[in-house]
Amino acid sequence: MNDEPRTGIQVTGDVAGSVLVTGSQNVIIQAGQVLVQAAAAARRQRQDPARLLRVLAVLAAPVHDPARPDHLPPPLDLRQEWRKLAETVRESHAPILLARLTPPTLDALRAALSPRAETQGLFPHILHFSGHAWAGGLFLEDEWGQVHAVTTEELLDALKGLPRPLDLVVLNGCETAADDARSVAQTLVEKGLARAVVGHPLPVWDPEAVAFAGRLYAELAGGFPLGEAVKRAGSAVTTHNVILLGDADLCFREYLEPGEPVVDDRRPSGNLPSRAPFFFGRGRELVELARTLASPPAVSVVSGPSGIGKSSLLVEAAHRNAWRFPGGVAFAQGPRPEENRSGTAADLLTQLAAGLKIEVTSDRIADALREHVALAPTLLLLDNLESLPEAERARLGEFLRHLGAESAALLALRPPCPQLEDLPRAHPLPLHEGIGREGAVHYALALAAERRVPLNRQQAEEIAAATDGHPRLIELVLARARDRDALLQEVRERRGDFAAQLDRAYEWSAARLEEAGRAAWRALILFPAGAAPERVLRAAAGRPGAEALREAALADFHPADQLWRWHGSVADYARLHWPLTEEERRARQAALLPEWTAWLEGLRGEAETVRHRRLEMTRADLEDGLEAAREAPREAARAFLTALDGALPAPDRTLALRDFVAIAYRTGLNLTTKDEAAERARLLGNLGVALGALGRREEALTATEEAVGIYRQLAQENPPAFLPYLATSLNNLGGMLSALGRREEALTATQEAVGIYRQLAQENPQAFLPYLATSLNNLGNRLSALGRREEALTATQEAVDIRRRLAEQNPQAFLPDLATSLNNLGRDLSALGRLEEALTAYEEAVRTLLPFFRVLPAAFADWMQVMLGNYLQACEEAGEETDWGLVEEVGRGLR
Question: Nearest Cα to 842, choosing from 803, 894, 814, 878?
Answer without folding.
Answer: 878
